[in-house]
Structures are given as C-alpha cells and as structure tokens.
Specification:
With 393 residues, the protein is of the alpha/beta class. It is built from 15 helices and 12 strands. The chain has 2 domains: 208 residues, Rossmann fold (3-Layer(aba) Sandwich), CATH 3.40.50; 150 residues, Glycogen Phosphorylase B (Rossmann fold).
Length: 393
C-alpha cells in the first residue's frame, strides 16, 4: 500500500469509544497500542467515537429511563443502574458513535488505514480498516455478561447484526486469541483468511527477577471479583494452608476484605497511577505463581504480565487464556475447585514453579505491544511490515 503520510510514514487513525491515550481505559490496551503504532513510525490520529459528554449523557440517561420499570420495584436504584448498563450497549448508542466516527474521520482527510477497537462503527468510504477485540457479542451473551443478557432479545439481535456488518466491511478482523477468531469465522461467517490472531501485549520493563521460590506466594489481580472467580481462589488457598502453612496469597483489585491467615489485600491499585503501578509490579516480582481461574477470560493482560516476570500461571480453561499461557502454566476448569487446589499444590514445588515460569518468560516474547502492532499493520498490508499472525488462518 502506498503511504500518504508525512515523510513516507503510513497515515492512520485509531478509533475507540473514549480517549485512546488514557491509560485507565480498557486496561490500558488502547493507550499501549497507540504508543506501539507510533513507535513503529505510524503517523497516527486517535479518534474518539464517543459523542460529546452532554449528548452521551442524554442518550444513556434517556435510554435508561425508557427501560426502567415504572412501579413495583423493590430496589429502584439497582434497577436504574441495570437500565444504564443496558443503555451503554444499546443499538441507539452504537448508531450515535457511528455518526460521530464518520464525521471526525472525515475531517482528517485521506488515510492509509484505520484500526477500529471494538467492532461497532459501520465506516464508509474506501479507506481499509481492521477491527481489534477480545470478545464478540455472541460470546458475551453465551457467557452471561449482564449488560448483554439484560438487553431485550430484539436489541441483542440488532447489536449482533451491527457487529456482523462491521466484520463484513473490514479488510481484516484482528483478534487477541483463537477463541475469538473461531467465533468470528464460525458464527459470523467471515472467511478464515480475513481473521488474524494478533494477540495482546504487556508493558514490558526490566522484568529480570531473582526470586525466592522456597515460600509459595500466590498473586491474584482482577477488578471483577465475581467473574475472575476470586472466592474460589481464597477457598482453595485456605485448604492449601493445611499442608503449606507459610504460603501467602496477595489480592489486587475489587476483592472483599479477608482476615484469613496468609491472605493480604492490596485493594484496587490503578496501573495508570505510577506509585500504585510500582506496587503492582513489585508484587509480580515477589510472587511465585499468578492465579486467576476466571469463569470466562477472553485474554487477560495479567497472564502476559506474569509470564514476562517469569511467573507460572493458573488460568481459566474458558476463553482465550490458553493462547497466552501455553506451557507456562496450568489451565483449570473454573468450577473445579479440586483441580484448582491440585494446581496450587503443584506450583508450591519450587523447581516446578521455576520451570513453568521460565517457559512462560520465553513465551512472553511473542506478546509485546510492538509485535501486536506490527501484526495488525501486516494484516492491513501496510508496506514495510511483515509480522505474520500468531496462528495461520
């Protein structure tokens, strides 16, 4: 593809429903991808598809009020919160974002390509674009994501149709895992050659660590305590302490308070706050195993972060986690607490934990943001890039 950017650089846009440079948005994924694309020489223009604050508030609040029950509600505040969650994924808001995206992209003039984070804007014109995401709407419905299952069936169907239309328009659909790729191919009917697994990255720093493997120190990081299966982790750890009384469990995220022996809560440390991020990284350096057997886990960056520090992971078998963890950890069925205890027992053995951690460290070289960005550029056929997908279509 011939570049129209300054100095021969590809001139591209990246769309996202919010500020793509905000490290606090969607686990920092958009901000990391922006930095990686710019680091590869792309003349990049992030474009928010979110309407103005007033318009967005009016759309969400008006939509929520129309959905909220009129009478007989035992918990009206909870009912309104549920209605707002539905409003945020409604077809009406997607139509508004599509209009905003078209208008703002039009102001940029000619572009070589567009990266669309989340497939929800039906872009028009001749500019090729790639979608990038970790979860389809159909997968969210199957796995009980509340904001999706709460939508009326007709609206669910409309949102799936909108997403399907975006996939058909895209030059290529880029996914974080084979789990998502297979859904787009089998359920949305997109040809396999147009769906590329590009993975997800981590913010790698100097992750070379000499740690003490003799004392088991498990680390859990996750804001959504219920979906991340935090209660099972604590129950399994309490059982483990019977045979490993010196073991520790460190919790980061939206966890409840715990007074159980060996359990240490650190609260919701924010990765976009330097002191709090430093505390999280120190916990990764001191841990001997990362554990997060979510009920469903599309592709959690935390697994890649753990691997980059040489940590083995105990991960969920549901979702795309297997692609990230590989031979650097153990997959367990999220409802199988006996399997979780066995996995934790296994990784209490220093040599076993060290060996799996080393495998994970080697595998983590595949999952850096510059390589993810290069795969997306290759999939878009941007001249000068030749980074194949993680797995052949």
């Amino acid at each position: 593809m011939t570049s129209g950017g300054a100095g021969g650089r590809p001139r591209m846009a990246l769309t996202f429903p919010g500020d793509a440079r905000d490290a606090g948005s969607w686990s920092g994924i958009p901000a990391s991808l922006v930095r990686a694309l710019e680091g590869l020489g792309v003349d990049l223009h992030p474009v928010s598809t979110q309407p103005s604050r007033l318009m967005a508030a009016a759309l969400v609040n008006g939509n929520a009020l129309a959905r909220a029950p009129r009478s007989g509600v035992v918990r009206p505040l909870e009912a309104m919160r549920h209605a707002r969650r539905q409003a945020r994924v409604s077809p009406a808001l997607v139509r508004a974002r599509t209009a905003v995206a078209r208008r703002r992209l039009g102001r940029l003039g000619p572009l070589d390509a567009i990266v669309q984070i989340h497939a929800e804007c039906e872009l028009v014109g001749s500019t090729p674009f790639a979608t990038y995401e970790d979860l389809t709407i159909l997968q969210a419905l199957r796995h009980g994501y509340r904001e999706w299952t709460g939508l009326p069936v007709r609206e669910q169907q409309l949102r799936v149709a909108q997403q399907s239309a975006v996939y058909r328009m895209a030059r290529v659909c880029c996914t974080t895992s084979r789990w998502v790729r297979d859904c787009i191919v089998s359920d949305y009917g997109v040809p396999a050659g147009r769906v590329h697994v590009v993975g997800i990255g981590s913010e790698r720093t100097d992750t070379t660590v000499e740690r003490d493997w003799s004392t088991p120190r498990f680390l859990f990081v996750g804001m959504d305590w219920q979906r991340k299966n935090g209660d099972s982790v604590v129950r399994a750890f309490n059982r483990l302490r019977g045979s490993h009384p010196s073991a520790q469990l460190h919790l980061v995220g939206g966890h409840p308070r715990s007074s159980a022996p060996g359990v240490f809560g650190h609260g919701p440390l924010r990765l976009d706050c330097p002191p709090e991020r430093a505390e999280v990284l120190e916990l990764f350096r001191r841990a001997t195993c990362f554990v997060m057997p979510s009920w469903v886990e599309p592709t959690a960056i935390a697994y890649v972060e753990a691997a980059s520090f040489g940590l083995p992971s105990i991960a969920s078998s549901v979702g795309g986690s297997a692609d990230l963890v590989g031979e650097g950890g153990i997959l367990v069925e999220p409802g199988d607490e006996e399997a979780l205890v066995r996995a934790m027992e296994d990784l209490c053995r220093p040599q076993r934990a060290r060996a799996l951690g080393a495998r994970g460290r080697a595998r983590s070289e595949l999952f850096t943001w510059p390589r993810v960005a290069a795969r997306i550029l290759t999939a878009l056929r941007i001249r000068g890039f030749d980074e194949p997908p993680l797995w052949a279509p």
